[in-house]
## 1
Amino acid sequence: MFKNRWFMDRRGIEGLPMRLIIIVVVAVAVLAAILAMLNMVNPKDTLNVECISVGGQEGNLYTVSGAGEISDISFNVVVKVTNSEGDPVSGATVTLTGANGAGSGKTGDDGTVTITVQNVKLNANENKEYMDVTVTASGYHEYNEENFIVIARVG
């Protein structure tokens, strides 16, 4: 008897599409709220990057002397990576590119890395070139800075 009564009542079928739409809208809203909370639990922090020394000299300037094209220039760069609170970031990948040269390395526990940059070239008609830096670390926004290091001709 209950079975026949269920099939005879057509009101449940008429309201079914509207109920499904309401359920889907509520489910999407709840899912969006959950995803937003997950992103808040693990927010990305910012990185601070500082050039400590280039070629053994403090700062971000490396000088070369000579006329014409100067190629196969190599030097060491010390870079320090900290978070927004000034704490060192270990395991960050630091990459230097530009002036036809490149170098990369990972920071240690103190947040510093010494990178050997090789194959830098200064063309005959150039008095300065620049190198850019890119730093990536888990849990942080990628850091990019153009003209991070200056290679300048003197004399």
Note: The beta strands are 47-54, 57-58, 61-65, 70-83, 93-98, 101-106, 112-122, 128-136, 143-154.
## 2
Amino acid sequence: MRSTRIVTSFIQDDQKILILKRSNKVKTMKGLWAGVSGIIEKNEAPLTRAIIEIYEETGIFEDKINLIRIADVFRVNSPQYENHEWEIYGFLFGAKNPQIKLNWENSEYKWIEKEELQKFRTVPSLEKVLFNLL
């Protein structure tokens, strides 16, 4: 089975969690809500990729976030590709009143209470990633 390593990060400001709506310009999962996500490149450390993705997708600099928790890595079968799985590395970061500047990968963002996540159409297993971090 083929495996793709990805990071999914959540940013928390007080009790609110940031979620992003994937734009129509991305290759997969268009229009679904997600955390800050990206593919881990080569032998890159997952935490390094998470920080890069946060800056690229939200405009938040590394010195404006603090790592709160790292989730246990888990695997999910890909709903898009046969004989393929995602190896998901989850991170929770804190930030105080960050200014969000979305890039082309996402079209919208919302700050939500954790219980509200189930009301959104999300990428697969997003709720599981979040609740492993809280």
Note: The two ends are 30 Å apart (CA to CA).
